[in-house]
Amino acid sequence: MSTPPVRRGGGDGPGRPAPWRIATFNIRHGLGRDGRVDLARTARAIAALRADAIGLQEVDVAYGPRSGHEDQASRLAELLGWEVAFGAALDLPPLRPGDPRRRYGVALLTPHALTGPVMHALPAHPGAPARHEPRGVLHAQVTRGGGDALDLLVTHLDNDRPRHRTAEVLGILRRAVGITGPAVLLGDLNAAPHRPELAPLAAAGWREAADALRGPGRGLRELLVLSALTGSPARPTHPARLPVRRIDSLWVRGAVDVLDLATGPLTDSDHRPVVATLRTRTTLHEHGPGPEPRTVCDLD
């Protein structure tokens, strides 16, 4: 376990009123379809989502030549003027003596106050072949100007074997036991929300954002064609140009209502971002004068 520092990227962003907009985006270390790494382009795509906080996957920090040895987490924060926490899933020795360690993992960016970031390693399944790379979950709390806070967990699960994803999910649940307030788990889970390896999340009280909007259910409603025709929030996210897999998702727990869910437009990554609009409640029965309008849309 490591406690990554919070790094400020050039100043606080303005406070935003409720509700929260929380996003997840696998940025593929800024690599575009043109074969170039362009963090300014990635920062523009992030800014366009108008999020209160965004979890990123596949972030390089001094990782190597493919990303110019750059600290991508700090650079994106600088470009946006936001705060950032980075969590290394892969932490390798430098290529040359005296250089920084080569790290790769997840990040959390926000224009609000970011506190208590901790990166937790996630277990592999002991009965499965070795993973290609270790996995982890970054936990931090984001607090807005009015004092309302949200616990966020950013992860990137194994891309190969369901048994490893099952072990990783159980590891996340163990780490989340101590969270008492509203919480959001977000990331590239490399599995559709109805997959068996993610079932422990629902059993532990987590609600996938699309299901929270439409009510739980699988079967025909999970078919991609019907999702497109009916305006279902179950929108595929990968591969970005012609997405067929819904592997990027957000899960909520506690006093959190999901107001809407949007799949982002085509960007230069191989994933589409996902944004959920959420409202936290101070008590389990505080709903205000009536139900919030709920909408589902794409950002295209």
Describe this structure in words.
The termini are far apart. It is globular, with a radius of gyration of 18 Å. It is built from six helices and 14 strands. 45% of the residues are buried. The protein is an alpha+beta fold. It has helices spanning 39-48, 72-80, 162-176, 199-203, 209-214, 224-230, and strands spanning 6-8, 20-26, 53-61, 83-92, 102-110, 113-122, 135-143, 149-156, 183-188, 207-208, 248-253, 256-263, 274-280, 295-298. The protein has an eight-stranded mixed beta sheet. Strands 6-7-8-9-11-10 form a six-stranded mixed beta sheet. Helix 1 (39-48) crosses helix 2 (72-80).
What's this model, at a glance?
This protein is of the alpha+beta class and 300 residues long. The chain has helices at 39-48, 72-80, 162-176, 199-203, 209-214, 224-230, and strands at 6-8, 20-26, 53-61, 83-92, 102-110, 113-122, 135-143, 149-156, 183-188, 207-208, 248-253, 256-263, 274-280, 295-298.
